[in-house]
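User: New here, please read:
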Amino acid sequence: MKNRNLKRVLISIFLASGLVLFSFGSGENDAFQIGDLKVNPGEIKSGYLSVPEKDGIGTVVPLTIINGQKEGKVLALVAGVHGYEYPPILALYRLKEKIDPKSLSGTLIFVHIANLPAFQRRIIYYNPHDWQNLNRVFPGDPQGTISQRIAHVLTEEVVKKCDYLIDLHCGDGNEALIPYCYWMLSGDEEANEISRKMVLAFGIKYIIIDKSRTKDKAHSKYLGNTAILHSKPAITTESGYLGTTDEESVVRNIKGILSVMKFFNMIEGKPEFVSDPIWIDHYEVIYSKSDGLFYPQTKMGYYVKKGEKVGYVTDYLGNVEEELRAPFSGIILYIIYTPPISKGEPLYEVGRVKQ
């Protein structure tokens, strides 16, 4: 017990000093398997992870495993939890071609498109078969709806088999969104410090300090939170907006992932920690109370004062149903920029900058 406590103290000292704990693997890696896809050291393989059919509805999850020649950590990279969020999806396909398994330490899991039915139908937020948001139903249910079954497969085959996870998002097809990340806090200080280093290494300067996630493992809701509740440090990133495929957002994702890989010493080089982080210590998402059309009165990245008008919603005849104002002074992290809005859907998110 004394040795274990001493080890924890030493780890905390190293983390606090900013030194990298993770050394290159000196030995040969082991074979790695997800579903039916078994990959030997020094190999790269792509395939499909099956989501069992129920009531005539099933799907697959396209993925790639790059198993390094040398031993090391297992990093899971998950894109396409929301099917209309394209830059992270494109980033993983491009990154797949950049990694040499012969010089890689550890293992990379690329989940290219977690929510394939939504991607195929070009649908924001939801799966077309059950109209559920995949990122609200983790850890899933093997006997549930298609979204719940996808979540269950991802939990069992990806979350439980990785050491660390990056949940890659961006502004959906209706969201004008500035780049930012979520640093989600748990009750494990060591894991918190590792995930803090991960989020700084990813390189996006706006970082939400998120203490709001549920601690109920049976109803973890979000992919990143599910990993954290399984003692796997994780971050959630946002790079991209309005369903576009702009090069800047794609490259930002690639650079961020490579920097995190360097932090874990999976590849050579030093991580590029963000030098001027802007910490968001409180955030709030404002939801619509009615169906209709949304008219934004500000833009993503703009600062608003408490009570300032942010937008308004009309009914389908043009009558104003509600006016929306800033709940506190802060920055608009994202705002809906397309007219259709449904009751209960988000309109914008405000973040308060930590002083």
